[in-house]
Write a structure and sequence with these properties.
By secondary structure, the protein is mainly beta. The chain has helices at about 5-10, 200-215, and strands at about 25-30, 40-45, 50-55, 65-70, 75-80, 90-95, 100-105, 105-110, 120-125, 130-135, 145-150, 155-160, 165-175, 175-180, 185, 190-195.
Length: about 220
């Protein structure tokens, strides 16, 4: 027999805590380093800087350093370019921390500044496709995500791929709206990023960097 909950239990029970809210970030597609490529990311709630992204290296190809507000490198994101006329998928990799990339015999070799590098994410994009498949490597099995984007409508979306084929939207980025009524499109280099609860923000930002390079 299932007993009915009392009014007090229903009103103040364990499930009465408010659900976690989405996190809203403003992404400025500019580096804080003079004439460098990158991003500066701010929390809409309090205006503080959350991430910055810079490309310091000379001759480092497409290595990008995702840093926290204090300048500590969280992830190094590298684009492995497809060979000329190759139909093989284009690949992106993200390593934890600050990784120095070198090329030996045509292959990228990574050396982490304070130890062995650890691959945390790999994204692959087929030729002429407007989407990527992403594997985020964990302790057990990889978590699979999908990236999609639209140049015309100026958005990018990140989906978590379920085991039964269902996809759940976990993050979305669009041109940011400003003005008193939030109806005025700001510059193309100012984006609004909405991240769902439970999604890692640094991994989300790395995925945004990848999709934004195509969009």
């Amino acid at each position: 027999m299932v007993m009915a909950e009392s009014e007090e239990t229903t009103r103040k029970g364990p499930s009465s805590q408010p659900p976690a809210a989405c996190r809203r970030l403003t992404v400025w597609c500019k580096s804080l380093v003079f004439r460098g490529d990158g991003y500066a990311v701010f929390d809409d709630a309090d205006g503080r800087m959350v991430f910055r992204v810079d490309n310091y290296g000379v001759g480092q190809g497409s290595d990008m350093a995702l840093m926290d507000h204090a300048g500590r490198v969280l992830l190094t994101v590298r684009r492995r370019h497809r060979k000329m006329l190759s139909l093989m998928p284009e690949t992106w990799e993200a390593y934890n921390g600050d990784v120095d990339g070198k090329v030996i015999d045509g292959h990228s070799v990574h050396h982490k500044a304070d130890g062995e590098p650890r691959l945390v994410m790999r994204a692959t994009k087929d030729l002429c496709s407007s989407s990527c498949t992403v594997s985020v490597l964990g302790a057990d099995k990889p978590d699979l995500y999908g990236l999609s984007w639209s140049r015309q409508d100026e958005w990018s979306r990140i989906y978590r791929c379920g085991s039964t084929g269902d996809n759940t939207l976990v993050a979305e980025v669009r041109r940011k709206l400003g003005g008193p009524e939030k109806t005025t499109l700001l510059g193309k280099d100012v984006l609004s990023l909405v991240v769902q609860p439970g999604m890692d923000h640094a991994i989300t930002m790395a995925m945004l960097m990848i999709s934004n390079s195509y969009r």
